[in-house]
């Protein structure tokens, strides 16, 4: 995890908020460093983590995690981490018997879909096996087993589901049910990354991004610099704390913007225009 980001968010592994949906978003840059931060943060906070990784392999996340002071292999062996490796599991879907349930079972139906069928018309229940996987992974432990602080669902990233032919409405339904189970029933947290393509004509991506933005308690948006590449400033991070019921209606949403530089084992944050390279 990145201590400077914890300071910006006013949180520590010893003091974890519960019942929150955090939206990670990146536009014209790579926001994966935010995923690595929250993964290592919740593992160090002794939370039970279900990680739906649709972008990279387990070894990739494990190598980065070791730089941040956590071992995903150890966490998985002791039952703290449940890891769904999308790249590897996608092959299993097509080589397993159709009757065998699989979290990514929607790939079968999408691959057999008629070309004329619009993604938004895809079966809304196609992500139900994935939800059931999350539900099973984060269910309360029986007495005698290791007790974790709170359950956490981490998804990297939801935009991949759109690329695989799942409609935005189906993805929003999936997150809705995950929120109801993880955030409300189990008093845990959900963290999900979504890419902002910046294309006004990408209707599916805009529906997903807007829908999640309205549901989120915290939004972290990583953006590339408008001036282009810079060696000493890699981008800017907008942090938005959303006012959610039952907070007073008079209390407004609060936002801050910082620039950042990604280093080997950390990320440095500073106010806009105050990079050490500039001063």
Please tally the β strands and state the result.
Answer: 9
Radius of gyration: 19 Å
Spatially, the strands of the biggest sheet line up as 3-2-4-5-1-6-7-8-9
- Number of helical stretches of at least 4 residues: 10
Structure in words:
This protein is of the alpha/beta class and 279 residues long. The protein has helices at residues 3-9, 32-44, 58-67, 72-77, 86-95, 106-111, 128-137, 159-163, 168-185, 203-215, and strands at 21-27, 48-53, 81-85, 151-156, 189-195, 218-223, 235-241, 254-262, 267-270. A hairpin with a 4-residue loop joins β8 (254-262) and β9. α7 (128-137) runs parallel beside α9 (168-185). The relative contact order is 0.17.
